[in-house]
Amino acid sequence: MDPGVLRILDANLNRSREGLRVVEDYARMVLNDDGLTARIKDFRHSIAALADSIGPHSMLAARDTPGDVGTRISVADEQFRENPARVATAALKRVGEALRCIEEFSKIECLSAATGAEKLRYELYSIEQDALLTCPRRQRLSRARLHVLVTASLCRGDWLDVCHRVLAGGAEVLQLREKDLPDCELLARARTMREITRAHNALLIINDRPDIARLADADGVHVGALDLPVVAVRQIAGPTMLVGKSTHSVDDARAAIAEAPDYIAVGPMFRSPTKPDVPVQGPSLLAEVAVLTDLPIVAIGGVTAQNMDRLRAPRHFAVAVSSAVIGAADPEAAVRGLLTALPRDPLIT
């Protein structure tokens, strides 16, 4: 094989493996995602197998680091990264570029390697989505403590002002819950909420409507126990979208867990003014469901700062509220009161 081509393949195989190591450490130590970490590790092994198919000794013999003019060329912005996510982003782009080079130059004398590189490049696109979108969303969701459901008719003041004040109070997740708005108005409202949640580094969930969630670039969709299955929601909303599922019993929870959502809501904990017809399951349901899954769980239904101390679970949980915040005279203060009442450490039953 041409020595120049061998040098190109050697350089890009090294570049791809080095970049993947950066991304693997990001997944492992920043995202704390064992599934993604394992996928990237397997991907690195696939790169090693690709190198073996080309001929590692031939590439090593052709390597000429002192004579490589590219080692003396640098770009100013390569010396700065804003945060770990930017580090991972840059590494993923380098891996993709390296695989494209391997694919193209392998076509000269090693077509099987070209085919392998192409397959790996497509797989990388999925890893990139998970590393930069889905997994960070899941991480933020797992850390969230308070979800606030926003319905304009239940707001004591203007719904947009309420959203601003709720986010200023520290709520990490807003859920747009409007059952009767025309689609155009619902989409416009979702896009407005997307802007303000992004500015506050909060997640935006759309109730019931995966199509609206996708169009508004929301973070997720929440559906009821009898609504679309999770797999169908993801087909509409896209693979990076978080999907939550409501549950009202242990059997509901087991069925929802089998669908592999990103989180489940459990309730009602107490009598809820927004869903007066749903039988109250009580705080004991939270503890029962918490031991069934490692998925994030959200206690919902009639939760207030006054009854928060009745909620018990053997691990971290979040709470979701509506009227207790958006119907309050001071939504920001109501959020702060709930966050103060919500225990930071799990309360063991």
Summarize the structure in words:
- Strand 6 (263-266), helix 11 (284-290) and strand 7 form a beta-alpha-beta unit.
- The protein contains 13 helices and 8 strands.
- Helix content is 53%, strand content 10%.
- The protein is elongated, with a radius of gyration of 25 Å.
- Strands 1-2-3-4-5-6-7-8 form an 8-stranded parallel β-barrel, surrounded by 7 helices.
- The chain is an alpha/beta fold and 349 residues long.
Write the layout of secondary structure elements.
Blueprint: H1 3-30, H2 34-54, H3 56-62, H4 84-106, H5 111-143, E1 146-150, H6 159-169, E2 173-176, H7 183-199, E3 203-207, H8 210-215, E4 220-223, H9 230-237, E5 242-247, H10 250-258, E6 263-266, H11 284-290, E7 297-300, E8 318-321, H12 323-326, H13 331-341
Helix pairs in contact: 1-2, 1-3, 1-4, 2-5, 4-5, 6-13
Can you give keywords for this protein?
single chain; 349 residues; alpha/beta; eight-stranded parallel barrel
In short:
The chain is of the alpha/beta class and 349 residues long. It is built from 13 helices and eight strands.
